[in-house]
Amino acid sequence: MKKVLVAGCGLVGKTIALDLSQDFDVTVMDPSESSLASIDNPNIKKIRKSVTDADSLFEIAKDMDVVCGLVPQPFLKQLHTQIIDIGKNYVSPSGYRLSEGLDTLAKKRGCTGVCDIGIAPGMSNYLLAKGAEMLEELDFGCIYVTGIPDKLDPPFNYRIVFCLEDTMREYCRPARYIKDGQLTTAPALSGIEDVYIPGIGKLEAFFTDGLCSAADNIKGNYIAEKTMRWPGYVDTINVLKAAGCFGTEPIRVDGMEIVPFNVTAELLRPIWKLRPENGDRDLTIMRIVAKGPREGKYVTYTWDMIDKFDEKNNLHSMARTTAFPCATAARAIANGIISEKGFFTPELLIENKNFDSFLMSELKIRGMNFKLSTLIEEL
């Protein structure tokens, strides 16, 4: 049986480990005893070590067929650099911005790495690139994605699964997108439009800086990512921003120096945290739209996916939809479906038709069904 190391045992790491344990010998590595204890599966080996312990990481990883990187951002570059440097195959749902030089290193060491293979980034740029490939030219491409509570929850109508601070930063930094074939930026939270999702209702979509590698590797006239939320969310966040609550420069209050951003994060954390034990449930919704000419017609391809909290296994939807593409990529590498050496992002894998059919079928088995619809119009 082939061996997989899952480095990091948070919500996504745990989900990947449980999924891969069906057909691999899985080891999970994490410094947190409570995180390791959350895995109740006798077939999964658990090691309480940090990836910052380079010697231990080497000893554990050297006999593995694939390593899955699920560690916090500050430790990610060290992890995937060390794993690739010892010639081990590697997958992660993040890491593109920290991957400079890894393609050359992976080819030199004779291994395969795939980063940013989650839901967004991940399936977002993969399907957008697939749409571009199906057209003669990508005239319009947009990723619409969200993780939201399954019901309105005033005053914010929002709950968070992953890092609160990362989400807050997305509301501050300019969003990269492609306009007239050139990379440009728009203010975060701008470009608001209504999006109707069957079975869910009306959501509002706005620019966020989530294109990642798609901005570098997919060519088109217009390419963007927009985050969706329940209506009214942007106005609420803009009030907080206007009041200075997202400011990063220290201010003095009662003789003490504080950073408004940090205070806001601590105030929002208990309000925004998704608590399944209290009945909170999340939804993950994705829509990918690709438009352009094909065979004398103007064609629109739309992929829609709605995923819900897994009641049977008590798994957050966002954890599921981030984990399963990553786990599927690990399977594909271990089984030789992805065999090319190098360090890839998802959109660079679309020419591998065996991987495409494997990926979509494996995700469908796990409840992630991307439904494709096609609209054909006269030019």
TrEMBL record:
Keywords: Oxidoreductase
Native source species: Cloacibacillus porcorum
Database matches in PANTHER family: ALPHA-AMINOADIPIC SEMIALDEHYDE SYNTHASE, MITOCHONDRIAL (PTHR11133:SF22), SACCHAROPINE DEHYDROGENASE (PTHR11133)
Example GO molecular function: oxidoreductase activity
Pfam families hit by this protein: Sacchrp_dh_C, Sacchrp_dh_NADP
Domain Saccharopine dehydrogenase NADP binding, chain residue ranges per copy: 4-109
Signal peptide: none
Alphabetized InterPro entries for the sequence: AASS (IPR051168), NAD(P)-bd_dom_sf (IPR036291), Sacchrp_dh-like_C (IPR032095), Sacchrp_dh_NADP-bd (IPR005097)
Alphabetical list of SUPFAM superfamilies matching this protein: Glyceraldehyde-3-phosphate dehydrogenase-like, C-terminal domain, NAD(P)-binding Rossmann-fold domains
Domain annotation Saccharopine dehydrogenase-like C-terminal: ranges: 118-367
Record protein name field: Saccharopine dehydrogenase
